[in-house]
Amino acid sequence: MGRYDLGEAFKQKAEDTLGYAIFAEDLPSKNSGPYPLKSGIQLKVHPIGCRTAPDLWAYPVVMCRIEPTTTDSSSTRVAVTYRGTPKQTNPPCSTNNPQNCITQLKFIKYGSGTYCRPFGSDISCRLDNDFLNNFVNGGGDANNIKFRTDSGKVFTASNGVNQWSIEFNGLYSLIYTRSKSDTSLDDINSMIESDNTAAWNIEFLTPPEAGGDVHAKNGVAIWVNKVAGPNTYWTHFYADNVPGVSDIGAYVAKRFPPGSTLDVLYHTGKPVEDNTALAHVYGNNFDGVRGLTNGWPLVWIGNANEGKKPRDLNVYNIVTTANENRAGGIHYYRQYFAMDTFSDISSTAASWVDEVITDNYNVIRESAPLSRTVDIFTTGVDESSIRAVVGKSGMTGSVCTGSTTPNASSMALFHIKCGDATYIGADPYHFAPSDWSGNGYYRPYICANDNAARGVWNLLGFFPDNACSDIQTGYTFFEGDNMCVTE
Fold first, then answer.
1. End-to-end CA distance of the chain
2. Left if phi > 0, otherwise alpha if psi is -120 to 50, otherwise beta: which for 46?
3. 480 in the Ramachandran plot: left (φ > 0), alpha (ψ -120 to 50) or beta?
4. pLDDT tens sequence across 76-120
5. In this predicted structure, which of 35-49, 189-203, 434-448 has the lowest mean pLDDT?
6. How many CB atoms lie within 10 A of CB 264?
7. Distance CA 12, CA 483 (A)
């Protein structure tokens, strides 16, 4: 589409188009499969994980720390999808004997009489190293882990294990950080004591929400950025909003837990038949339109999410004209919006193209085109209500008669409601407080009679000045099936 801020945007005369523009929900991409990353880049999530990035971009970015890899400070606006594959877990193996890999543990008591005890902010559980055949492993695993006996006793280490087996003064211990959702220390000791010869099976659990796709239809802010600190690498991308999710960074962190491998794919979109679409119908026949600038209306579309002041949008304009809009000048442009399935939206939009109307005229010099009468009645409803009948003049009982469009002898007639008070007249600031424009701020919506209320305006039409003065106060526009009748 071209950069809007550089004047490179797409421009086309409306008369040279089909007369409508279509906005699809999420069409299939022209590209598919893996996105071509820079050679050497591998995206594996570091134990630090993912989170919402600081507010350094014009719109939200998610950042995931990754294991050291090739750097690439470039970006893309191509729609992509990050696909996460959770870490495949294997039984831990002893560092002094790689063939000694364990799937079970047994616990024995410390001298304090407990099997597990506090270890700073962590939990330490003493291991039966004879059962483990002199198993030593100072490493850990960030996956959710359960320890389960064959009889069904269970305790959890949902934050993973910090160290599988460390030796200190001849004692071997498993260390993990307990979360609030994990089994309590007292319950763990009680379960082990109740069957102190039982072996505990190690179960690696992938969180149910882990893995899958995170869409980034706005692209990637930085592919791989190396920041201050040893081997500190991050990928930054514009993750799509997810319905019902307020913290997209936390959502991505659950999708891509530490150890996950990330693949980047072209965003595939949705099948054509599953897409809904919006059509803007602006017309393409402007013969006879007065005061029309040559070449206008103009379709003007550009990319506004780059440059010095990027915005999270693409600009879509229909630039029209109002050359006759001097004193008494009126410009009108009746356009349409339609929604349908993408498969049917073109035919729906095309059926409305000839209904588009635009023109410029001056009420001082000429009559308003396409005008209809508006009559206000107090009959047919309750005693304090009014209703309008459009397009049928000369009806008996009309309080005042105006038109649907401005003319030289008319003024806009408003129905204004502020709290419980109403006004029908040409003064749009009737209820505004005396200082509504004070200190350079304009607040006509504040009601002088009720500071807690906010004004509500309805335009009833265009009427001769004071023609409707008999119903200026004490009447309310009827809100019901007969409030406005078109004949």
1. 46
2. beta
3. beta
4. 989 999 999 998 888 999 999 999 999 999 999 999 999 999 999
5. 434-448
6. 20
7. 43
